[in-house]
Amino acid sequence: MIIQLFVVLFTGSCAKKGFVSESVRPELYDIKSELPASTHKRNPTFLVYGDHRPSWRVQEGFLDKRNWSRKRLFLFPVFLPVLLFNAIFGGTAYLRHVPDLGSEMRRKVLNQIYDEVRKGDIDFIAHTGDIVENGTYHTQWEDFLIEAAVEKPVMKLVPYYPAPGNHERHNEQVYGRHNYDTVFPNSRFYTKKFKDVILIFLDSGLIFDPKGDFSSLTVQDSLYRKYLVSGPDSKKSSWLEEQLASAQEKYKIILIHHPLFSYGKHSRDWDETLGMNLEQKRRELTQLFMEYNVQLIIAGHEHYYEHNVLNYLKEGKNYNMHILVTGGGGTPVRPLISFSKVDKWLDMDMHYGYEVDMVNRAEEYHYCIVSVSENGINIEVIKVDDGEIENKIILDEFLVQ
Questions:
Q1: Coil, strand or helix: which one is 350?
Q2: Could you point out which of 5, 13, 138, 227 has its C-alpha 20 to 30 Å from the C-alpha of 189?
C-alpha cells in the first residue's frame, strides 16, 4: 500500500516543465489586455497586490524556525505530528514541483478582489510579481489562469498589468521567458499613461538573478544598462531614462518587484551577491528617481505590508519618495522584524546616505486601492481575513503629493 502511494505521488501527477502555449487551453489566457482609449484621458483608480503564489508546506511549516519555537511544540502528542506531516507531505510535493500551501488564503484574497472589481470602480489590476511559484512549469500557470480567468474571472473584467517577479523565471530562456510572454505579452518594460499620472513597469530581474537564468553576470549587467540606468560613460540613454525624461504627467509611479528600501527578510538583498554591483545599482536607480521627482514606488517581494518614505533634498527643497511594499496576496505572510533590528538597518541606510522613515507595516494579507486625482495619489490598504468584502478592514490610508 505504501509503495503504491509513493508511485502515485512521484509519477501519476508529477508536474513537468513545458510550454503554456502547447499545453494550456488557449481560451484560458484569452484575457482582457487593454483599457479603452477614453480611460487614458482621465485619472485611474486601480487595485494593486503581489506575492500571491502558492508555497511549500515543508518550507513554511517544517523548516520554519518559528514553528519550532512555539509553546505548542511542547504539547508533543498534538503538534509534533503536524510538523512531521508537513515534512513528509510537503517534501513530497516539493520533489514533485507542485506547491501545496497557500491555496486557501490566495483564494480568499482573489475572492475579495473579484468583488471589488465587480463594483465597477476599478479600471485595472496591477501586480507586483511572484504570480506563480516557478514559471517554467506550465501547470502552475494553468492553475493561476483557472483561478483568475475562470473561477473568479477578474482578468476577463479588467486588464491585468504585472511587474514580473523572480518566481516567474521570465529570464530563463527555455520555458520561463516563453511562458511569461505567452500569458502577458510585452509586459516586462512598459508604461501606462493617464491624465495626470504615468505608471512605469520594470523588470528587476535585470538586477537580481538568484537562479542563474542569465548566461553570465556580464550579460545581465549589459541588459541593466540598456533598460534601467545607462551609466556615466554611455552615449545612449536607457529605456527607463527616456521614459522619465519624456514624461509630462504630474505624477510618476514605478511598479517593480524588488523594493529599493524594505526592512524584512529581503532587506539586505542589495548587499548580497545575487547580481553585479548591487549597492551601486540601488544608488543609481534611487538618484534617477530623485532626479525626475518620482513620487511613488510600488513593490512586492516582502511577504507583508510596509510603507516607507525616502526624504531627500534637491535644489534647496525637501522632497518625499513613498515606497509601498505590498506582498500579502496569498503566499504565507512573514513575521515582522524586531524594531531593534529595523533601527539598525535604518542607521545602515543612513550611513549610505539615505534618510528613510518607516511609516507603517503589518503582517497581514491585503491588497491596495490607488486613486489618482489632480490633487494627489490616495492609497487605501485593505486587509483580507475571511475573503468577504463586507468585512474588509482598512489597514492604512495615505495621500502622496
A1: helix
A2: 138
- β-partners of residue 369 are 47, 380
CATH 3.30.460.80 is right for the domain spanning 17-53+102-400: no
Going from the C-alpha of 354 to that of each of 1, 35, 279, 317, 400, the distances in angstroms are: 61, 37, 12, 16, 19
Tell me which H or E stretch contains 111. Answer: helix 103-118
CA distances in angstroms from 339 to 89, 145, 231, 263, listed in the order given: 35, 39, 36, 10
Name beta bridge partners: 357: 309
Task: Please tell me the pTM assigned to this model.
Answer: 0.92
109: Cβ contacts below 8 Å, ≥ 6 apart: 49, 52, 328, 329, 330, 365, 367, 384, 387
In the chain, domain spans: 17-53+102-400, 56-101
